[in-house]
Specification:
Blueprint: E1 11-12, E2 25-26, E3 32-37, E4 51-56, E5 73-81, E6 86-93, E7 99-104, E8 109-115, E9 134-142, E10 149-157, E11 165-168, H1 169-174, E12 208-212, H2 216-219, E13 230-239, E14 254-255, E15 271-277, E16 283-291, E17 298-305, E18 325-327, E19 332-337, E20 344-346, H3 348-351, E21 364-368, E22 371-375, H4 386-389, E23 407-413, E24 415-417, E25 422-424, E26 426-429, E27 432-435, E28 440-443, E29 449-452, H5 453-456, E30 469-472, E31 477-479, E32 481-485, E33 491-493, E34 506-515, E35 519-524, E36 544-550, E37 559-564, E38 570-573, E39 579-580, E40 586-591, H6 603-609, E41 622-631, E42 637-647, H7 654-663, E43 671-672, E44 677-678
Parallel strand pairs: 1-2, 23-39, 24-40
Antiparallel strand pairs: 3-4, 5-6, 6-7, 7-8, 9-10, 10-11, 12-15, 13-14, 13-16, 15-19, 16-17, 17-20, 18-19, 21-22, 23-34, 24-25, 26-27, 28-29, 30-31, 30-35, 32-33, 32-34, 35-38, 36-37, 36-40, 41-42, 41-43, 41-44
Length: about 675
């Protein structure tokens, strides 16, 4: 501001002694300059003549005070913006307390914006802030909380060595440089450089996935949109300043129902619980995204607002959204995914990026149309020099499994004959092995004929095999061995298949070793499957009585065959340790269907028992096979689940038996597979 003040003295005289000077004379005058004008103060020059006019030099004066941090402070860049009548100044500090302040021309004042070591300013001319490295952008928007239009000043800078800088100036000043001691909203253990960077880091914390247990009172009657499908998840975050992250790291693959029986599908979880780490308080909203085709296409399930209120006002005073389940101690958002929300597709141009578009560092920044452009960019890092690379060597060592984390599974399966109410076993038969409570039929009409019932009902094992195939849901399988219950309930290996049990109880034993901790489903393949021909063994089944209650106290008479469930498979959980049927309270029981009424039968009885005739002649009809949902015009069926084994005593109508099978199966089933077997069950 100009100062009005009379200049004294007015004349210079270097020939006269100072003691003779008048009040207007001096030997020399400091800070006085002259310029040529048409008039002078002595009025002795005519109009139009040029004379020298004296004028004091302009001096420095304090424009506005600003208190800088302790230590030596050196300005390394500044730029004024006429649109706002402000100047932004960047200051290097010897104690690493670098700062940015602005000069307000409207109020003739200075405002400290932020003091932060993370600015990482350098006292090197090549890294000073030049005019092309500083940009002020103006953001205009309407605050939905009050309907008022607001203008935000966003300051950008770049110096060729650091990440591109960014600050929302007025918000930073209002919070005293995002001071978490004054504003607890901003507290927490997070990367504070995100407050001053142009870009946000890609979300990298893993998303934990678990099932929401089926709740009959809530989930009954609702569509299950995740059943038997695979899912992967990722997130995209928008902060309070409108900056978006790249799409986050992809989660592990989750497959619904992989460890469950199809017969239980009506009670499987219909929702998943996602636990998402969100530790930065400036995160404003989160897009939860999912893919069902191995991360090829992505869709947004919903956008979650983390706080109540707009980010255009005093967002640092907003409360957390009360509709969310948010663990403030660990900054974990619990999100329920049922695949029943928006399903907005995400452009492949976004999801298929190999790297962010933002360079590692830039030399200049400026407006390019409506966008902000960066120039003289550096991507990645300089390659290592050859002499440095020569000091490195590469050796690949295969990982070694930690035996303490692997599990062993032992499954015991008894064979039960429901007609005779007794347990049987595998034993040598003919040239191989078979199983059955009775081995022959004796026919007296018309002549005495002894017939092999084991072969008649297809309970003879393959010629080279003495066991049955059992397999887990991961595809691994085992061939059964046999044990019998000895004295005091001790299990004894029956290597020759002729051991005698005092309690007449033997088990098929299936052993699986070194399994990854997880949940598995154990099933029995057809007893006719040859181990040398395993192409489709998982598509076969044998006669299964069901999962029964089991008293594991001493292995004696402890299988409660009358308390069986409708399930034809066994769920095995080895997440917490090894599994052994001998320590469980349930057991999978196989069925022996070889039986007949009386001691003498006719040829017709034998044929019926072998599945070749259909009349009610007093033989032991048994139903086992697949219950089907539909039958096509070509007679093809879609199997849904194994039907339970049902048998009839003399006098029971076969159609009552089929109805019983349907009524005891799960789901709304209307048809029964026309290939149901009556004792000739081996290939069902």
């Amino acid at each position: 501001m100009a100062q009005n003040q009379k200049v004294i003295p007015l004349k210079v005289n270097s020939d006269l002694a100072p003691e003779y000077f008048d009040e207007f004379t001096a030997l020399f005058i400091k800070n006085l300059t002259s310029y040529v004008g048409s008039t002078n103060e002595l009025d002795n020059v005519n109009e139009g003549q040029n004379v020298a006019k004296l004028k004091p030099l302009k001096s420095n004066e304090l424009y506005a005070p600003i208190e800088l941090p302790d230590g030596e402070n050196i300005g390394i860049g500044a730029k004024g913006f006429p649109q706002s009548n402000k100047v932004y100044v960047f200051v290097w500090n010897s104690l690493n307390n670098h700062c940015i302040y602005r000069i307000n021309g409207d109020t003739r004042s200075c405002e400290m914006i932020k003091v932060d070591p993370n600015f990482n300013f350098q006292l090197k001319p090549q890294y000073f802030l030049h005019e092309s490295g500083i940009l002020l952008d103006f953001v205009k928007a309407v605050n939905p909380d009050n309907g008022l239009e607001v203008t935000k000043e966003d300051l950008y800078w770049t110096n060729g060595i650091n990440y591109q800088g960014y600050l929302r100036v007025d918000d930073c000043i209002a919070t005293n440089g995002f001071d978490e001691t004054q504003y607890p909203y901003l507290s927490g253990n997070y990367d504070k450089t995100t407050l001053i960077r142009m870009g946000l880091p890609t979300p990298k914390d893993p998303i934990e996935i678990s099932e929401v247990p089926f709740d009959e009172s809530i989930d009954a009657g609702l569509n299950n949109n995740i059943l038997f499908k695979s899912f992967q998840f990722r997130i995209c975050i928008t902060d309070v300043f409108g900056r978006r992250t790249e799409h986050g790291i992809i989660s592990d693959l989750y497959v619904s129902g992989v460890n469950q029986c199809m017969s239980q599908s009506n009670s499987l979880a219909r929702c998943l619980l996602l636990k998402i780490k969100l530790d930065n308080p400036i995160y404003d909203r989160v897009d939860v995204e999912y893919s069902i085709d191995n991360a090829v296409n992505w869709a947004i399930d919903s956008t979650v607002n983390l706080y109540v209120g707009s980010n255009l006002g005093e967002w640092w005073k907003r409360p957390r959204n009360p509709d969310l389940i948010f663990d403030t101690a660990n900054n974990i958002l619990s999100y329920t995914f049922c695949r029943d929300k928006e399903c907005d597709p995400v452009s492949e141009d976004e999801t298929n990026k190999l790297e962010p578009a933002l360079a590692k560092s830039s030399q200049a920044i400026g407006r390019v149309g409506k966008a902000i452009g960066l120039a003289n960019n550096k991507y990645g890092f300089n390659p290592f020099k050859k002499d440095l690379l020569d000091n490195f060597s590469l050796e690949i060592k295969p990982p070694q499994a930690d035996v303490n984390t692997l599990r062993n599974i032992t499954v015991l399966v008894p064979i039960y004959n429901p007609y005779y109410n007794e347990f049987t076993s595998i034993f040598p038969h003919n040239t191989g092995y078979g199983f059955g409570a009775r081995t022959t039929f004796t026919i007296h009409n018309p002549t005495k004929v002894v017939t092999d019932v084991i072969q008649a009902v297809n309970q003879q094992l393959p010629a080279t095999q003495s066991g049955i195939i059992g397999y887990l849901s991961d595809g691994s399988y085992a061939i059964s061995t046999q044990v019998f219950v000895g004295q005091n309930g001790v299990l004894v290996d029956d290597t020759k298949f002729n051991g005698v049990s005092p309690v007449h109880l033997k088990y098929l034993k299936f052993e699986f070793t070194a399994k990854t901790p997880a949940k598995y489903v154990f099933r029995l393949a057809s007893h006719l499957v040859d181990e040398s021909k395993l192409s489709n063994y998982q598509k076969t089944s044998t006669t299964v009585w069901g999962v029964c209650s089991f008293d594991n106290a001493n292995n004696k008479n402890n299988v409660q065959v009358t308390k069986r469930t409708k399930y034809q498979e066994l769920l095995i959980d080895v997440c917490g340790g090894d599994y052994n049927t001998a320590t469980q309270n349930e057991i999978l029981v196989m069925a022996d269907l070889a039986a007949w009424h009386g001691t003498e039968v006719t040829v017709a009885d034998l044929l019926i028992n072998a599945g070749l005739l259909l009349n009610d002649n007093g033989v032991n009809y048994c139903v086992d096979g697949y219950v089907s949902e539909s039958i096509t015009a070509q007679g093809e069926t879609l199997p849904i689940e194994l039907a339970g084994v049902f048998y009839k005593s003399k006098g029971t109508n076969i159609f009552d038996l089929i109805e019983n099978a349907l009524n005891n199966s799960t789901g709304d089933l209307a048809l029964i597979n026309q290939s149901f077997n009556f004792n000739n069950h081996g290939t069902s």
